[in-house]
Amino acid sequence: MKHYHYIFTGSGLAALMTVYEMVLSGKFEDKTILLLDENPKKTNDRTWCFWEEKKTFDAIVSQKWNSAYFKNQNFERPLDLKPYQYKLIKGLDFYTLVFDVISKQNNIHFAHQKVVDFEELGNHCVVKTEIESYTCNQIFNSIFNPEIVKRQTKYPFLHQHFIGWFIQSKEPVFHPNCATFMDFSIEQKGNTRFMYVLPTSETEALLEYTLFSKDLLQKEAYETEIKNYIQKLGITDYKIVEKEQGNIPMTCYPFWKHNTKNILNIGSAGGWTKASTGYTFKNTIKKSKDLVRFLSKENDLRKFHKTTKFWFYDLLLLDILNEKNYLGSSIFSAMFQKGNSTVIFKFLDEETSFWEDLQVIWKCPKGLFIKALFGRIFHR
User: Fold this and answer.
1) What integer best gives the mean pLDDT of the chain?
2) Residue 29 sits in the same domain as residue 167
3) Is a pLDDT exceeding 90 seen at residue 379?
4) What is the pLDDT of residue 380?
5) Which of 238, 296, 360, 361 is the most exposed place for a label (fewest CB within 10 A)?
6) pLDDT over 80 (residue 254)
7) 365 and 241 part of one domain
8) Are residues 262 and 134 in the same domain?
9) Same domain flag for 110 and 31
10) CA dihedral of residues 116, 131, 105, 89 (deg, nearest 10)
11) What beta strand segments (E) does 295-336 contain?
12) How many C-beta neighbours within 10 Å does residue 116 have?
C-alpha cells in the first residue's frame, strides 16, 4: 500500500481550499498529499456566494453586487452592503484555479476513486477505495454522513434545499447592480421559504426557490414556485439557460466529537457550514486558514476545534425553526426591517463584538429566543 502524510477523503470545497492554503503557506512541500474523490470536478456543479470587504479570489468572481433587497409580504427594504460587496463564484472556476495550482506540486496527487472506508490504526490510518487501499499519517474527511445526525435528537437537523434556474427573459425586469437576498413574499406553506435572485443583467438572473425545513420537496414543487415567481415579475417570454440543485445541512451537531488524534472531519462533515444560514464559502476560507496554521504547530487533531458564541446563537435559531418552522420569515424580517445591514452581515460572518451581537439579537422576537434558551438549558 502506498503511504502519504495526509489523505483527504472527498475533494469538495473544504478539502480543496485546505490544500490550496497548504500550497500558499509554503510549509508543506515535504509532505505527500493525496486527494480521493469519485467526482473529477470537471463540471460547474454549484455556485457559492459570500460578502466581503477584501478581494478574496477576485480573479474568479463572476459577478458582484453593491446592494441587495430584503422583502416580505409587508415591506421591501434596500440594503446598503458597504463596506461589503456580495460576490458569486462558479464551482468550475474554483476547481480550475485550485487544480491548476495543485498540478504544479510534485507532492500533491489526485485519484479519481470512491472512498468506501477509513480508520485509524494506532499511529497510522488506512483508507480503502473501490480500487485499492492507502496508508497515511492523518486523514481529513469531508464525506458527510447524515445518519450520524439523524440518530440523535439533542441537536436539530434541518436542510437548506433549493432548485435554481438561470434564465434569460425578453423583458428587462432585473436590476443588475442589486441582488435579492431574501424574498419572503412567497407563500410559506408552514415552512421557511424564500426566493433568492442574483441578476447579471436587466434580462438575465439566477432565481432560486429555497427552504429551511426538515423535509425535501418533489422537483416539480420547486419548479412550479419558480414559474409562479417569474410570472409575478411580469416576465412572459424567457428561456432556461442552466439549472442547479442543492441541499446543505443545517445543524449544530458537535461533529468534532468524532475527531481523533489522526482523523479530522472538515467541511459539512465537520460542521464548517454556517448552521443558521447554510453559507459555506467564507466559513471554509477561515477554517482552512486556521487548520493550516494549526498543522504547522500541532499534531493532535483533537485540539483543533474551538466552540464560539456564534455556535450557540445558531443553535437557538435552529431550535426555534425545528419546533415552529413557519417562524423563519418573521425572525429574519424582524432582523432586517430596522437593523443595521452592515452589522447584520458582520454578525452572520461571526466577526461582531458582544455589543454588536446585541444590536442584532434585540431586533429579533425576544420571547422566542428566551423560550428557546430556557428549553436548551432545562430540557435538553
Assistant:
1) 95
2) no
3) no
4) 56
5) 296
6) yes
7) no
8) yes
9) yes
10) -50
11) none
12) 12
CATH number at residue 208: 3.30.70
Total domains, the chain: 3
Asked if 142 contacts 10 with a C-beta cutoff of 8 angstroms, the reply is: yes
- Mean of the pLDDT values across residues 191-212? 97
Could you tell me if residue 236 is inside a domain?
A: yes
**pLDDT one-digit tens code per residue, 29-57:** 999 999 999 999 999 888 999 999 988 99
Averaged pLDDT, 205-225: 97
Domain with residue 10: its CATH number is 3.50.50.60
CA–CA dist 74, 323 (Å, integer): 24
* Strand pairing report for 157-169 and 238-251: antiparallel
Q: How confident is the model at residue 356 (pLDDT cuts 50, 70, 90)?
A: very high
Are 125 and 268 contained in the same domain? yes
**Same domain (yes/no): 139, 287:** yes
State the Cα–Cα distance between residues 155 and 380, nearest whole angstrom.
9
Domain residues for the domain of 205 are 157-250
- Mean pLDDT, to the nearest integer, of 248-271? 96
Question: At residue 377, what are phi and psi to the nearest 5 degrees?
Answer: -75, -45
If asked whether residues 188 and 316 sit together in one domain, one would say no
How far the first Cα of the chain sits from its last, in Å, is: 46
Strands (E), 122-184: 124-129, 133-141, 157-169, 178-183
Q: Average pLDDT, stretch 285-312?
A: 96
**Are the CB atoms for 179 and 197 separated by under 8 Å?**
yes
CB 1 within 8 A of CB 79: no
Residue/partner pairs of 196-202 with CB below 8 Å, 24 or more apart: 196/162, 196/164, 198/49, 198/63, 198/65, 198/88, 199/174, 199/175, 200/63, 200/176, 201/174, 201/176, 202/172, 202/173, 202/174, 202/175, 202/176
| Residue 67 within any structural domain of the chain | no
* Residues 196 and 257 reside in one and the same domain: no
